[in-house]
From TrEMBL:
GO terms for biological process: carbohydrate metabolic process. Residues 1-19 form the signal peptide. It is found in: Secreted. The keyword Translocase does not apply. Residues 96-353 form the NodB homology domain. This is Chitooligosaccharide deacetylase.
Length: 353
């Protein structure tokens, strides 16, 4: 791997991150070489400065360090709409393109994140569940605050009306929940939301299709990975950030990450209703380096056994079934200039009934 500077400490950091974090992009065109792909890192936050919920909140000093890093000149922080348009049209993007997204419209977004983002001059998208804004609970913003953010340049996306576990709902009820959120946001903000975020990052292929049919331009999960121009726009990855995973070293690592493009992913549906553990496999596109350096980590199982087959095929041999709820697999491999390629999967196992 010409140009790659091997650093044991960095290797340990990225492998550790994968092991702790442990998602779904679909078929790209194999004819295009991976290094020619346009790509972007999409960051995801929830709460800010709420230290009683460290799994969902980022410390303010961590968030300020992230903003300073993004303003350092090494990144291009762009509106999500510009990134999605470029990826869908296979247009070039600047090196180290980054988008900022925030889920759930917590009050700390308005009180803590919004002033800092405004002062930094950085664009962002906030995904909201309309029922939570209608209820005006003490933890959440109301429509008045959201309209202020929209007037200030924030893009508003949908995260359903009721923020349910979508795979657990009948598809017609899930579709109604999604469409109702569109109507409420359009009424309160004055325009339809262009983008959708799956609550908890959970979706099935049927949910994915319902979101596409609802007219959204793209939809986003909560699986770590880099969005690229051969991925499915309705299965776009994001890097979750919270207090536990908000250190500046990890932030620099993910903000400069590169895509690990794959095709022929199995199982195709991230909701596991059949074999568990699933037979996970994918084919890595040519042109990204030596896949002998690829490692994968699974939730609660650590580093997985990998079988490397001809033609760039990777088969992950899990030894344990995933429990009910969410589980992840993260795969990474080193790239030139001390950067890392990253591909993540999130699976959902319905509770037994």
């Amino acid at each position: 791997m010409q140009g790659f500077l091997f650093r044991p400490a960095l290797m340990a950091a990225v492998l550790g991150a994968c092991a702790l974090e442990a998602g779904l992009q679909s078929r790209p065109a194999a004819a295009q070489r991976a290094e020619e792909a346009a790509s972007a890192v999409i960051l995801m936050y929830h709460r800010f400065g709420e230290e009683d919920v460290p799994s969902a909140s980022i410390r303010l000093d961590q968030f300020e360090a992230h903003l300073e890093e993004l303003k350092s000149g090494g990144y291009s922080v762009l509106p999500l709409a510009r990134i999605v348009t470029a990826l869908r049209n296979r247009q070039p993007l600047p090196e180290r393109t980054v988008a900022i997204t925030i889920d759930d419209a917590y009050r700390s977004v308005y009180e803590e994140a919004w002033p800092r983002l405004k002062a930094a001059g950085l664009p962002f998208t906030i995904f909201v569940s309309s029922d939570l804004l209608d209820a005006r609970g003490t933890d959440y913003m109301g429509w008045t605050e959201l309209r202020e953010l929209a007037r200030g340049g924030a893009a508003i996306g949908s995260q359903t009306a009721s923020h349910p576990h979508l795979p657990d709902m009948p598809i017609d009820k899930a579709r109604d929940d999604i469409l109702y959120s569109v109507s409420r946001i359009e009424k309160e903000i004055g325009q339809k939301p262009a983008f959708f975020a799956y609550p908890y990052g959970e979706y099935s292929l049927a949910i994915r299709d319902a979101v596409a049919e609802a007219g959204f331009a793209a939809a986003f999960g909560q699986n770590s990975g880099v969005a690229h121009d051969r991925g499915d726009p309705y299965q776009m990855p994001r890097f979750p950030l919270n207090e536990n995973y908000g250190g500046i070293d990890r932030f620099r690592l993910i903000a400069s990450a590169l895509p690990l493009p794959v095709e022929d992913l199995t199982p195709a549906d991230p909701v596991l209703t059949g074999a568990n553990p699933p037979a996970v496999g994918f084919t890595v596109l040519p042109g990204i380096g030596d896949i002998a350096n690829l490692d994968c980590f699974a939730s609660r199982q650590g580093r997985t056994n990998i079988e490397r087959l001809p033609g760039g095929r990777i088969e992950i041999r899990l030894t344990e079934a995933f429990p009910a709820g969410r589980s992840r697999i993260n795969c990474t491999m080193p790239a030139p200039d001390s950067r890392w390629r990253w591909f993540g999967l999130q699976f959902y196992v319905p509770a037994a009934r």
